[in-house]
Amino acid sequence: MAGSSPLIGVLALQGDVREHELVLDALGVAHVAVRTPAELAEVDGLIIPGGESTVIDKLTRIFGMREPLRARIAAGMPVFGTCAGLIMLSNRLSDATHDQQTLGGLDVTVRRNAFGSQVESFETTLHAPDVTDDGVAASFIRAPLVEEVGPDVRVLATLDDGRIVAVQQGNILGISFHPEISGDLAFHNYFVGLVADAVSSVHA
Amino acid sequence: MADSTPQLGTDRVKRGLAEMLKGGVIMDVVTAEQAKIAEDAGAVAVMALERVPADIRAQGGVARMSDPDLIQGIIDTVSIPVMAKARIGHFVEAQILETLKVDYIDESEVLSPADYVNHIDKWKFTVPFVCGATNLGEALRRINEGAAMIRSKGEAGTGDVSEATKHIRKIKSEIRALSSMSEDELYVAAKELQAPFALVQEVARTGALPVVLFTAGGVATPADAAMMMQLGADGVFVGSGIFKSGNPAERAAAIVKATTFYNDASAVADASRGLGEAMVGINVSDLPAPHRLSERGW
Predict the structure, then answer these.
(1) Which value does ipTM take for this structure?
(2) Among B20-29, B185-194, B286-295, whose mean pLDDT is lowest?
(3) Residue B199 contacts by C-beta under 8 Å, 6 or more apart in sequence?
(4) Are A111 and A145 spatial neighbours (Cβ–Cβ below 8 Å)?
(5) CATH number of the CATH domain containing A65
(6) Which of A126, B170, B191, B247 has the maximum number of C-beta atoms within 10 A of its C-beta?
(7) Is residue A43 part of a domain?
(8) Domain limits at A130?
(9) E strand or H helix at A107
(10) In a domain, A2, yes or no
(11) In the annotation, is A178 catalytic?
C-alpha cells in the first residue's frame, strides 16, 4: 500500500464498475478492479458498485471473496457502497431472498427495491451538508432504503420526507443512489478523503 | 436551491438500470418455478415469456406477448428485475407491459412483428426498452427511437452461437471504424449506416454505444458466454440454452460464473465440467431464410 497516493479498488464481480472508475478518473485518483483476494490485499479502500445484490453476494461466496472482504472491513478498511453496495454492507435486510447474505459493517436495516419496480426509479437533488455544500445529483434505480439505524450510525442525507438514503459508520459509507450515474463527484470525493485519512493514520 | 422534485423515466434512470445489469446473465423463463431457479443460480434479471425461442421455432404460428397472469406470477416470485417481450411495433402490448410494472420491455424479433414499417416510439414510455440489432446502424436507429439498452440479435432458439458472434463483431468493428474517422467523414458514415448524425458523432467521439450492449441468440454453454464477453459484450442473454438443457440449475450457475471470470480460461473450464447435455440445437445454416428471426426488424 502506497503512503501518499492511496489506491482505491472497485469490486468488479458484477454491476456498474465502469461508472465508478470514470468518477475516480475525474477525481484523479488511482484505482484498480478487484476480483480476487490478492487484488483486494493491494488496495487502501474499496467501492462496492451498484448491481444486483443477490448476484454480487453469490459471486463473493463462489469465488472466495466473502471472508477476505469481511476481514478487511472488520480491520477498518474504508468501504463505500452504492445501491447494491449499501445492501452488501448492511447488517440486516428486511426482505432478503431465502439464501441471501450480506458482508455487514453498517448497523442498519435496509429494504431492497423499496420504491417498487423500475417505473418508480427517479432522479432528484439531495442535500448532504456533511459531504458538500452543493446539491447532490442522485439517480435512484430500483433503489433500497435505510429503514432503521443503530446509535453509532450517522445519517448523511434523507429525501424531503425524511427517509434515509445515505449513512456512515466509521470508515463505512453506504448510499441508496448512484452519484456515479449522475456524474456527481461529491460522495466519491468525500470517500477518497476517508481513505487518505485512514492511510495517513497507518503511516503516522 | 436545486430542484428536489423526483423525475421519473429519465434517460439516466432508463439507461442506468441496464448499467446495473452489466457483467450479468439475463435468463429466459416460462414459469415462476423457472424464474426462482434462475434467481437462485445468479441471474441478474429474467425474461418472462410463454415459450422459449426453441419452442416458438418448433411449434410455429404467431408468437405474441405473454399472458399478463404469467408475467405477474413471475414478478411476484422473484426480487430481481423482470423483463418481458412485446412484438416489434406493438405499442399496445408495450402499454400493457408497462401497467404490469415489468422492469424492462424487450421489443423482440423472437415474437411475430406487429408492424413491418415502424418500431415502437419508446420515448413515450416510463419503462425502459431493450431492442435487438445486427449492426451499428440498426442499434443507433433503435436508440434514436428511445431504446435504453441494445442486445445483438444472434439467432434465437438455435443453440448455434455463430450469428451472435457475427453481430457482436459487426457492431464492435463498426464502432472502431467510426472512432478512426475524421470529423468530415462522419457525414457519409451516417448516410451509409442509415443512422442519425448526432448519434454517429457521439459514438465516434466516445468509442462506445451510448447505452449498454448485451449479446443474445444461440448462447448455450459457459464457453459461449465467455466468448461473447471477450468480444466486448457488457453481458449476455441466454434463452433456450438453459431450460432446454439436461440440468438447468447447474448450467445456469455455470454460465453466470463464466460470464464473471470470462478472461480466466481455467475458471471457465471449471464452470464447464459435468453439466450434462447442452440443448440439442439447430445449425443456422440449415434454417431456411424465412425462419431466421434475426432478419426481422430493420
Answers:
(1) 0.94
(2) B286-295
(3) B140, B143, B144, B210
(4) yes
(5) 3.40.50.880
(6) A126
(7) yes
(8) 7-203
(9) strand A106-111
(10) no
(11) yes
